[in-house]
Amino acid sequence: MSKMHEIDFKIYGDDMQFVEIELDPMEAVVAEAGGMMYMEDGIAMETIFGDGSQQSSGFLGALLGAGKRLLTGESLFMTVFQNQGTGKRKTAFGAPYPGKIIPVHLSELGGELIAQKDSFLCAAKGVSVGIAFNKRIGTGLFGGEGFIMQRLTGDGWAFVHAGGTMISRDLLPGETLRVDTGCVVGFTPTVDFDIQYVGGVKSALFGGEGLFFATLRGPGRVWLQSLPLSRMADRIVMASRVAGKGGREEGSLLGGLGSLLDGDNR
User: 255 in a domain, yes or no?
Assistant: First the structure.
């Protein structure tokens, strides 16, 4: 594993945050394509194949890193921002939707973090962004986005994004937390992660929380978000449909009855 670049940073904002990273000469940070907000003169931007941590192993290593990223739904390419000037230079990366940017120093977590896909924002060059398969049968069949997650490894700073408000919990050995599957941002490798059925026909059909939830069992640390991107997107789609129907609650039972009573059979 290549030596991590030591970077300094500062996070700005409240609900729409961005992280500003200060780079010494020849230091670099790697980020998802399209995440850059600004960069000062003297910083060179280079698009690379894979996650940037396997460049010394040649084309085969880069191809392997790119293939892992493709499985998580990410682009085959990432962007490296390197300070090629003589003094300190700054570059910044913005959050993709309202929420919080979480800085994690991987060396303090044992060198690894399992994160929800699409949550990675940027990291010190040398951090590996791979995949983590959950081997549980329930997770594989019903886990959806929780089945294939991102594995961040290294000993430097990495930055992930959480939607809405973020909390972290340190779970004791055997302590269990049941969470909506989309609200899991990440957890340390010591945490046992699985997907379980909600149970009960009425809860499954009318509870509004989905058929499955995630169970996180300690020991270890977990990060949770109050507003998953999927939940926000669903509300936007529902609001658009209602607006398109002249304001009727199209998705509700009462809205359907109203359409029948007023003769709207479309």
Answer: no
Six token digits for residue 232: 């926000």
Which pair of structure tokens corresponds to residue 68? 């892992």
Q: Would you tell me how many other CB atoms lie within 10 Å of the CB of residue 197?
A: 12
Domain that residue 128 falls in: 8-230
With 70 as the cut, is the pLDDT of residue 2 above it?
no
**Closest-CA residue to 59 (of 71, 75, 48, 69):** 48
Judging by DSSP bridges, how do beta strands 77-83 and 28-32 pair with one another?
Answer: antiparallel
Decide: pTM greater than 0.70.
Answer: yes
The total number of structural domains that make up the chain: 1
Q: Which pair of structure tokens corresponds to residue 190?
A: 């010591």
How far CA 145 is from CA of 72, 116, 214, 228, in Å, comes to: 9, 7, 11, 11
257 falls within a domain: no
| CATH number of the domain where residue 39 is located | 3.60.160.10
